[in-house]
Specification:
Elements (H helix, E strand, L loop, with lengths): L1 H20 L13 E2 L8 E2 L3 H23 L1 H7 L2 H28 L10 E4 L1 H7 L4 E4 L8
Parallel strand pairs: 1-2
Antiparallel strand pairs: 3-4
Helix pairs in contact: 1-2, 2-3
């Protein structure tokens, strides 16, 4: 979070310096901003106007502070590149996936699902669904399903 704060302060300082100095490359002699334009009159148009400077300076100030923070605090970078932590996280995820797959197989073995549902109409039984916590349906159709 402090990287954003420092880069924001650096950004504001850079903008303030440009607004105080008012370089002729971005501003007219009377202090107004030059418009964006290439190959036109240089007294009124510029290829690098103030708004473009603001965008570019925002990116530069953030990247500069980010690089300086990595340069002066390399432990964060080393911790981020610590492959033993990455490997342990990978092993935990792999073990959780194995357990999850085993539990799904156990549920599939315990629950006997009909291979094919009989043709007809099925209506949701709201009371039974509420009690069981899963949707329960009631079959409405002929007692003995016939081939259609």
């Amino acid at each position: 979070m402090w990287i954003f704060i420092i880069s924001g302060i650096l950004y504001l300082v850079g903008i303030a310096i440009v607004l105080i100095l008012k370089p002729s490359y971005m501003f007219t002699p009377d202090g107004h901003w030059k418009e964006f334009g290439i190959g036109q009159r240089e007294d009124r148009y510029t290829p690098f106007p103030f708004w473009l400077f603001c965008l570019v300076w925002a990116l530069i100030s953030y990247i500069l502070v980010l690089l300086l923070s990595m340069l002066f605090n390399p432990t964060e970078l080393e911790e981020a590149m610590d492959y033993s932590k990455i490997e342990s996280v990978y092993k935990n995820v792999k073990a959780n996936n194995r357990r999850r797959a085993a539990s799904i197989e156990a549920v599939e073995e315990a629950v006997e699902l009909p291979k094919e549902l009989a043709k007809g109409y099925y209506v949701l039984n709201k009371k039974a669904s509420k009690i069981a916590g899963v949707p329960k349906y009631v079959y409405l159709g002929p007692e003995e399903p016939s081939d259609y």
